[in-house]
Design a protein that fits this description.
The protein contains ten helices and ten strands. By secondary structure, the chain is of the alpha+beta class. The radius of gyration is 20 Å and the shape is globular. The termini are far apart.
Length: 308
């Protein structure tokens, strides 16, 4: 039985991409996908069942900005497979929907589950940092996609919801200044706990590679630190930074500029509880807490910037 109705065209394309004799037995929507439709397909080939993942890029706004989104993720998956990272393996992709009706990427399904409230926070944070350092160790020379911020750094919007608006002025002045030098590496561009799968105490895979590119390591670090600060508080974000510095070694030089940029780059209005966190069972957070923690985290970054 399927709990999601997929078009016949998409079903036929997915099955044929796996094996000429394959048939899709069931379709289930997966948790967490907020910018695209992510489905788990159970496919039978010669009486053997296997599960794969189909990502359909149904966000019109995203496709207007990046019409090659499916191609982008497909190339990322090829790149990380060659590097030996724990990520899905590419099966097939449809760049513009000409084959299955909508731009899509078909990939293997990884074992594991998202874990947002671990029993041992320190070990969990350390494993997240270790895995991110491994991603950044991948050679990015020749990868065709390059990092650029989502926001206009010359005229960022000042948060009107904040209880400390004057301090945000100081943060804005920093990101309007020159970016520190940073050697480009391969970055995930959307690395956060919701895109990491766990099997027991260890990470079994990293998913959602649609934004992978060449860029500064601090961007990935800042994105994840922002999420950790909101999800578990500033001490967790700082522990992640310390662990990452340890695992990355001499190839990384920390600068709070990237933290501040990553923080403002993800502010699309007043901070609220991430719907993905709620979908994965996180309770006890409120929108008011998210605004307070965002202010507090920004202040902690200004303190770090003052010590440079």
């Amino acid at each position: 039985m399927s709990d999601y109705v997929l078009s016949e065209r998409s079903l036929q394309w997915a099955a044929a991409s796996i094996n000429p004799h394959a048939a899709v037995q069931s379709v289930r929507r997966l948790l967490g996908g907020t910018s695209s439709l992510v489905l788990q397909l159970t496919v039978e080939v010669d009486r053997t069942k296997q599960e794969v993942v189909l990502r359909q890029f149904d966000n019109t706004e995203w496709l207007l900005e990046e019409p090659d989104a499916a191609h982008h993720e497909a190339e990322c998956l090829k790149w990380v497979e060659r590097a030996g990272l724990p990520a899905p393996r590419l099966i097939a992709y449809d760049v513009n929907g000409s084959e299955c009706g909508i731009p899509a990427v078909l990939m293997t399904r990884l074992e594991g589950a998202v874990q947002l409230e671990p029993p041992e926070l320190d070990a969990w944070v350390n494993e997240l940092a270790k895995t991110l350092a491994a991603i950044h160790s991948v050679d990015a020379e020749g990868f065709p996609w390059h990092y650029s911020p989502y926001m206009n750094t010359t005229s960022p919007e000042k948060p009107t919801w904040s209880s400390v608006p004057d301090l945000w002025d100081a943060a804005i002045r920093i990101i309007q200044g020159p970016a520190p030098e940073a050697k480009p590496c391969f970055i995930h561009r959307d690395y956060h706990p919701g895109n990491v799968l766990w099997a027991g105490e260890h990470i079994s895979g990293i998913v959602d590679w649609a934004n992978g590119c060449r860029g500064p390591a601090g961007v990935d670090l800042g994105h994840c630190r922002r999420d950790l600060a909101l999800l578990h508080g500033i001490p967790a974000a700082d522990a992640f930074l310390s662990a990452y510095i340890l695992h990355a070694g001499e190839r990384f030089h920390y600068d709070p500029y990237w933290d501040l940029l990553a923080l403002m780059d993800t502010l699309f209005g007043p901070p609220d509880v991430d719907p993905g966190w709620i979908a994965f069972g996180v309770t006890g957070l409120t929108d008011e807490m998210m605004r307070e923690r965002t202010d507090q985290y920004m202040i902690s970054l200004l303190k770090r910037a003052s010590l440079r």
